[in-house]
C-alpha cells in the first residue's frame, strides 16, 4: 500500500489525537451536510404535495374523487466519498426536474426513482464523510449537520407547500417538486470542490505524504501521525476484501450489522416518518382544514429544527445512550397520550373537538422534539461510528438500505393502518418505542469522544457482544 506500513499492534490504544476545529474542516462538513437538505426537502414535499387537490386530480383522480365525495452503492462508495456525493446530487437534480415537469404518472414514477437513486448515494456518502472528517471530540456535533440540514430542508418544503397550495391554476405542486433542484444544485456544486477524506484516500492506496498533508490541514496541527497510523492500520486490517461479504459472514462484525439494521428500523417503527409524511393528512383526520393542517406541519418542523440545534450542543457532553433513552421516554409519553385522546374522542366519521385537536398538535410537537434530539440524529451518527474502515462503506449501505426498506413499509402501510387501527396505531408505535429503549439500554455501548478507528474495543468489552465477537476475533480487531 502506498501509504506505508505501521505496527498495527501499536494502533487502537486509548490515545487521543491532537488538533483543533479548523475553518477548512468546518466548511467541508457544512458543504457535505447539504446532502441532508435534499433528503429533508424530499420528505417534506412528499406529504404536502400528496394532500394537494390539483396533484391528486392530475395523477390520482379516483383518490381525489373519493376524498371529496442497494448494495451496489457500497461498492461505488469505496472509490471515494466525494464521487458518490456528486453522483447522488446529479441523480437528485434529474429526479427533481422530471417530477416538476411530469405530465403523466409514468414520468412521476421515473422522477421518484431518480430521486431515490440520488438519496441512496448521497445519504451513504455524506454520513461517512462527516464522521471521517470530524474531530473525535466533536464528531457528534459535526455529524448532526446532516440532521440539521434535513430539518431545514423539510422546513423549507413545508413552507413552500403551504404557499404553493394557495396558487391558483393548480400548478403549485409543480413548484414544490421542482424547487428540489435548488438544494440539490448547491450540494452537487459544493461536492465538486470538496477534498476526499483521509480514510478514503488511505483505502485507495494514496501516497502517505499526500494523506498526511491533508490531515494536517484538516486538524490544524502537524502532529497527525498517531491518527494516520490508526487509519493505515485499519486499512491493513481489511485486507482489501468485499466489505459486504465480510460484514455478513464474519462473527466479529455481528454487533455492527445489528446496529446497521436495527437503528434505522427502530427509527421508522416509532412512527416519526409516518407522521412526517402524513402530518397534513393526520391533522385533517382530526378535524383541521387543509390550509391549517399544512401550516401546523410547518410549525411542527420548526420545533424539529430547534430541537436538533439543541442536540448539537449536548451530544458530546451527555453521550449517545443517555440522550437515546431520555428521548425515547419523551416520545413514549407523547404517543400514549395521542393514542388515548384519539381512542376516547375520535368518532366513526373522524374529527375531534377543537380543544382536543389543539392538544394533539401540542403532543405531536412534544413527540417530534423528543425524536429530534435523540433518535433523529443518532440514527445517522451511531452506525457511522461503529464500523471499522474495511467495512465502513458496505456497512453504511446496509444502514441506508434498512432505513429505506422500513420507510417504504411504514409509509405504504400508515394510511391503511390508520383507517383500520385508528387510535391503536399509536399504541403500536409506542410498543416499538419500548422495544428500542430496551435495546439501547442492554446492547448499545457508549462511543462518546472515542476516535473512530478505536471504537472496536467497545464490542470486546461489552457484556453481550464480547461473547459474540470471541477471543480470536478480538485479537484480529486489535490490528485495525
Automatic annotation (TrEMBL):
<feature type="transmembrane region" description="Helical">
    <location>
        <begin position="109"/>
        <end position="130"/>
    </location>
</feature>
<keyword id="KW-0762">Sugar transport</keyword>
<dbReference type="GO" id="GO:0015145">
    <property type="term" value="F:monosaccharide transmembrane transporter activity"/>
</dbReference>
<feature type="transmembrane region" description="Helical">
    <location>
        <begin position="424"/>
        <end position="444"/>
    </location>
</feature>
<dbReference type="GO" id="GO:0016020">
    <property type="term" value="C:membrane"/>
</dbReference>
<feature type="transmembrane region" description="Helical">
    <location>
        <begin position="172"/>
        <end position="194"/>
    </location>
</feature>
<keyword id="KW-0813">Transport</keyword>
<protein>
    <recommendedName>
        <fullName>Major facilitator superfamily (MFS) profile domain-containing protein</fullName>
    </recommendedName>
</protein>
<feature type="domain" description="Major facilitator superfamily (MFS) profile">
    <location>
        <begin position="1"/>
        <end position="448"/>
    </location>
</feature>
<feature type="transmembrane region" description="Helical">
    <location>
        <begin position="291"/>
        <end position="315"/>
    </location>
</feature>
<dbReference type="InterPro" id="IPR044778">
    <property type="entry name" value="MFS_STP/MST-like_plant"/>
</dbReference>
<keyword id="KW-1133">Transmembrane helix</keyword>
<dbReference type="InterPro" id="IPR005828">
    <property type="entry name" value="MFS_sugar_transport-like"/>
</dbReference>
<feature type="transmembrane region" description="Helical">
    <location>
        <begin position="21"/>
        <end position="41"/>
    </location>
</feature>
<feature type="transmembrane region" description="Helical">
    <location>
        <begin position="85"/>
        <end position="103"/>
    </location>
</feature>
<feature type="transmembrane region" description="Helical">
    <location>
        <begin position="257"/>
        <end position="279"/>
    </location>
</feature>
<keyword id="KW-0812">Transmembrane</keyword>
<dbReference type="InterPro" id="IPR020846">
    <property type="entry name" value="MFS_dom"/>
</dbReference>
<dbReference type="Pfam" id="PF00083">
    <property type="entry name" value="Sugar_tr"/>
</dbReference>
<comment type="similarity">
    <text>Belongs to the major facilitator superfamily. Sugar transporter (TC 2.A.1.1) family.</text>
</comment>
<keyword id="KW-0769">Symport</keyword>
<dbReference type="GO" id="GO:0015293">
    <property type="term" value="F:symporter activity"/>
</dbReference>
<feature type="transmembrane region" description="Helical">
    <location>
        <begin position="356"/>
        <end position="376"/>
    </location>
</feature>
<feature type="transmembrane region" description="Helical">
    <location>
        <begin position="322"/>
        <end position="344"/>
    </location>
</feature>
<keyword id="KW-0472">Membrane</keyword>
<dbReference type="InterPro" id="IPR045262">
    <property type="entry name" value="STP/PLT_plant"/>
</dbReference>
<feature type="transmembrane region" description="Helical">
    <location>
        <begin position="397"/>
        <end position="418"/>
    </location>
</feature>
<dbReference type="InterPro" id="IPR005829">
    <property type="entry name" value="Sugar_transporter_CS"/>
</dbReference>
<dbReference type="InterPro" id="IPR036259">
    <property type="entry name" value="MFS_trans_sf"/>
</dbReference>
<dbReference type="InterPro" id="IPR003663">
    <property type="entry name" value="Sugar/inositol_transpt"/>
</dbReference>
Amino acid at each position: 500500500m502506498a501509504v506505508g506500513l505501521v505496527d498495527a499492534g501499536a494502533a487502537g490504544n486509548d490515545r487521543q489525537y491532537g488538533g483543533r476545529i479548523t475553518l477548512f474542516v468546518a466548511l467541508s462538513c457544512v458543504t457535505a451536510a447539504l446532502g441532508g437538505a435534499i433528503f429533508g426537502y424530499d420528505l417534506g414535499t412528499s406529504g404536502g404535495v400528496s394532500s394537494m387537490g390539483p396533484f391528486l386530480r392530475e395523477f390520482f383522480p379516483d383518490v381525489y374523487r373519493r376524498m371529496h365525495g442497494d448494495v451496489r452503492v457500497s461498492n461505488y462508495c469505496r472509490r471515494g466519498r466525494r464521487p458518490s456525493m456528486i453522483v447522488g446530487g446529479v441523480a437528485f437534480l434529474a429526479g427533481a426536474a422530471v417530477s416538476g415537469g411530469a405530465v403523466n404518472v409514468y414520468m412521476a414514477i421515473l422522477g421518484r426513482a431518480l430521486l431515490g437513486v440520488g438519496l441512496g448515494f448521497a445519504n451513504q456518502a455524506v454520513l461517512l464523510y462527516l464522521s471521517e472528517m470530524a474531530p473525535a471530540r466533536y464528531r457528534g456535533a459535526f455529524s448532526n449537520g446532516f440532521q440539521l440540514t434535513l430539518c431545514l430542508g423539510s422546513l423549507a418544503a413545508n413552507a413552500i407547500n403551504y404557499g404553493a397550495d394557495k396558487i391558483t391554476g393548480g400548478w403549485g405542486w409543480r413548484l414544490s417538486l421542482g424547487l428540489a433542484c435548488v438544494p440539490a444544485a448547491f450540494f452537487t456544486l459544493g461536492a465538486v470542490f470538496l477534498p476526499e477524506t483521509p480514510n478514503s484516500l488511505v483505502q485507495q492506496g494514496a501516497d502517505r505524504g499526500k494523506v498526511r498533508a491533508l490531515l494536517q490541514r484538516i486538524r490544524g496541527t502537524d502532529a497527525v501521525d498517531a491518527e494516520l497510523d490508526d487509519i493505515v492500520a485499519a486499512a491493513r486490517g481489511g485486507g482489501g476484501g468485499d466489505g459486504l461479504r465480510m460484514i455478513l459472514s464474519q462473527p466479529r462484525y455481528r454487533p455492527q450489522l445489528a446496529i446497521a439494521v436495527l437503528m434505522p428500523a427502530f427509527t421508522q417503527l416509532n412512527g416519526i416518518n409516518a407522521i412526517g409524511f402524513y402530518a397534513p393528512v393526520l391533522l385533517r383526520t382530526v378535524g383541521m382544514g387543509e390550509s391549517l393542517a399544512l401550516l401546523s406541519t410547518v410549525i411542527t418542523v420548526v420545533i424539529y429544527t430547534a430541537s436538533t440545534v439543541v442536540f448539537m450542543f449536548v451530544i458530546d457532553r451527555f453521550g449517545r445512550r443517555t440522550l437515546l433513552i431520555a428521548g425515547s421516554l419523551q416520545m413514549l409519553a407523547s404517543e400514549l397520550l395521542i393514542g388515548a385522546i384519539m381512542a376516547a374522542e375520535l368518532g366513526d366519521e373522524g374529527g375531534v373537538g377543537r380543544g382536543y385537536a389543539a392538544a394533539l398538535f401540542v403532543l405531536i410537537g412534544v413527540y417530534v422534539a423528543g425524536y429530534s434530539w435523540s433518535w433523529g440524529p443518532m440514527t445517522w451518527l451511531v452506525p457511522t461510528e461503529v464500523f471499522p474502515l474495511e467495512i465502513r462503506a458496505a456497512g453504511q449501505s446496509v444502514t441506508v438500505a434498512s432505513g429505506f426498506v422500513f420507510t417504504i413499509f411504514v409509509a405504504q402501510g400508515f394510511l391503511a393502518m390508520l383507517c383500520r387501527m385508528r387510535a391503536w396505531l399509536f399504541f403500536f408505535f409506542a410498543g416499538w418505542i419500548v422495544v428500542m429503549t430496551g435495546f439501547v439500554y442492554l446492547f448499545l455501548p457508549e462511543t462518546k469522544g472515542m476516535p473512530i478507528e478505536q471504537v472496536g474495543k467497545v464490542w470486546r468489552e461489552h457484556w453481550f457482544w464480547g461473547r459474540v465477537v470471541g477471543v480470536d476475533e478480538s485479537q484480529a480487531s486489535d490490528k485495525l
